[in-house]
Amino acid sequence: MCFLLPSYEGKSVLELGAGIGRFTGKLAQKAGQLVAVDFIESVIKKNESINGHYKNVKFMCSDVTSPDLTFSEGSVDLIFSNWLLMYLSDNEVENLAKRTVKWLKIETTKEFVAKLDLKPGQKVLDVGCGIGGGDFYMAENFGVEVVGIDLSINMILFALERATGLKCTVKFEVADCTKKTYPDNTFDVIYSRDTILYIQDKPALFRSFLKWLKPGSPSPEFVEYIKQRGYDLHDVEAYGQMLRDAGFDDVIAEDRTDQFNQVLQRELNAVEKGKDEFIQDFSEEDYNDMVGGWKAKLIRSSSGEQRWGLFIAKKN
């Protein structure tokens, strides 16, 4: 059974319904910390007599259905149980799930979501959202609007209940991603975990994804800005390649957007601090134009639409 689990080496594991320790010892061999729980005192003591030599294991006598069994939010990497849920009523299973989901960490979700480069106001589709943990995280931490779909009615009902009273913009729907349709260019990002492996016709699903996604072109505001200024802009790598194509050697092309933003922010702070003096020397209209332009430039560069580069090239 343990070989079916995701990697838990060095991680914090909670074993519910541990019994006399059929799996406790195997879990302890890889886990960083393990808490083994069972509601029968004689049974958990037997487990401890067998596996107590593992110094990373804590043995607890407690009823999993009791609200007295609590762990800190985000303190557990993996929760394992074998044969426990079959002895619980539907309501007990539901209540246990509501409690345990809060105990679990979301480190993997954080890692994956960090790669999405989410921006406030974007719209995200989560295919196979489950109980919505990743969706709440994205909405609460990045200010995005999330639509979560899943085939499981129970999962969606649980997600909807979790969403009650929250201010984040998350919507859930029972839907089959192979049959569901959305208008073209609806979403900025499509996110999915542990779902696509079940889809037989993956190429068809990916074609749907392509239609539903908005193109990654510049915003209308940036397009107008480029047109107004008469700019011909390219990314940092493209500029570097142009220099190489022209015959230059030892070309260095570095993205210095972060450095530029820091300098621009310092200058902006200085101008805002001396607002009255600036207006006295020039005008309020000049002040508003300058500050507004700098703030807009910061927004464009922070969002990734406008980048700033350092280029060095030699003629050998």
How would you describe this structure in keywords?
Rossmann fold; 3 domains; four-stranded parallel sheet; 12 helices; Methyltranfer_dom; SAM-dependent_MTases_sf; methyltransferase; Methyltransf_25; EC 2.1.1.103
List the helices and strands and how they pair.
Layout: E1 12-16, H1 24-30, E2 33-38, H2 41-51, E3 57-61, E4 78-81, H3 90-103, H4 107-114, E5 123-127, H5 133-142, E6 145-150, H6 153-163, E7 170-174, E8 189-192, H7 202-212, H8 220-229, H9 236-245, E9 249-255, H10 257-273, H11 275-281, H12 284-303, E10 309-314
Parallel strand pairs: 1-2, 1-4, 2-3, 5-6, 5-8, 6-7
Antiparallel strand pairs: 9-10
Helix pairs in contact: 10-12, 11-12
Instruction: Report on the biggest sheet.
Output: 4 strands, parallel
N-to-C series of helices and strands = EHEHEEHHEHEHEEHHHEHHHE
Unreliable segments of 5+ consecutive residues? none
- Structural class by helix and strand composition: alpha/beta
- Tell me the CATH topology of the largest domain: Rossmann fold
Count of discrete structural domains: 3
The count of β-strands is 10
Label the overall shape.
elongated
* CATH class categorisation of the largest domain: Alpha Beta
Indicate the radius of gyration in whole angstroms.
Answer: 27 Å
Give the assembly state of these chains.
Answer: single chain
How many helical elements?
Answer: 12
For the record, give the distance between the C-alpha atoms at the N and C termini, rounded to a whole number.
Answer: 65 Å
User: What is the CATH-assigned architecture of the largest domain?
Assistant: 3-Layer(aba) Sandwich
* Overall mean pLDDT: 88
The CATH homologous superfamily of the largest domain corresponds to: Vaccinia Virus protein VP39
Estimate the helix proportion, in percent: 40-55%
Strand content of the residues, in percent?
15-25%
Q: What topology, given as strand order, has the largest sheet?
A: 3-2-1-4
